């Protein structure tokens, strides 16, 4: 009687999410290896990122596993504009961003990282499918591509 070959460990949520993102990147006609971003910023767990250019938008797609709660998230973020220096224009810009968020960007929202306005979409990877990854990337890129020029023009801001 020969010993049974041990079964390979099941892929983790993190590994599954990375595979789904890379499958989507290939479907978009890009090389996942060529799109890989540096691993800087992976402090609390595992982190894999890719940078994609869609229209005028750059989209950073990141799969992050947080060890403390053993949860993995998929996040897509795209820089839109740098806030204008004029305080009045900043206030008007932030008001517009909040109004756009409330109007319903469908699985996306505007936020700030320092003085940069970002469009962001994020979700836990549990139950994630390939269609959802593709929709997240395409939709966020469309939001960024739609609003970067408009917000820069309306508020005298520089595109990020």
List the defining traits of the structure above.
alpha+beta, 160 residues, 4 helices, six-stranded antiparallel sheet, 6 strands
Biggest sheet record: 6 strands, antiparallel
pLDDT average, as an integer? 89
| Helix percent band | 25-40%
Provide the succession of SSEs.
HHEEEHEEHE
* Uncertain runs: none
Class by SSE composition = alpha+beta
Number of strands: 6
Q: Please, how many helices?
A: 4
Short note summarizing the structure:
The chain has 160 residues and is of the alpha+beta class. It has helices spanning 13-27, 32-35, 87-103, 130-155, and strands at residues 45-54, 57-66, 71-82, 109-113, 116-124, 158-159.
Describe it.
This protein has 160 residues and is an alpha+beta fold. Helix content is 39%, strand content 30%. It has four helices and six strands, in the order ααβββαββαβ. Strands 1, 2, 3, 4, 5 and 6 form a six-stranded antiparallel β-sheet that branches. Helix 1 crosses helix 4. It starts with 12 loop residues before the first helix and ends with a strand.
Helix/strand layout:
Layout: H1 13-27, H2 32-35, E1 45-54, E2 57-66, E3 71-82, H3 87-103, E4 109-113, E5 116-124, H4 130-155, E6 158-159
Antiparallel strand pairs: 1-2, 2-3, 3-5, 3-6, 4-5
């Amino acid at each position: 009687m020969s010993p049974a070959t041990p079964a390979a460990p099941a892929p983790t949520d993190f590994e599954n999410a990375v595979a789904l993102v890379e499958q989507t990147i290939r479907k978009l006609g890009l090389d996942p290896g060529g799109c890989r971003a540096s691993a800087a910023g992976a402090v609390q767990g595992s982190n894999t990122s890719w940078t994609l250019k869609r229209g005028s938008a750059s989209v950073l797609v990141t799969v992050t596993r947080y060890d403390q709660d053993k949860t993995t998230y998929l996040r897509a973020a795209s820089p839109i504009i740098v806030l204008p220096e004029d305080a009045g224009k900043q206030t008007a810009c932030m008001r517009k961003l909040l109004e756009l968020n409330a109007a319903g960007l469908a699985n996306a929202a505007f936020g700030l990282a320092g003085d940069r306005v970002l469009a962001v979409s994020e979700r836990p990877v549990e139950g994630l499918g390939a269609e959802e990854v593709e929709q997240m990337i395409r939709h966020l890129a469309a939001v960024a591509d739609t609003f970067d020029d408009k917000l820069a023009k309306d508020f005298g801001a520089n595109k990020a």
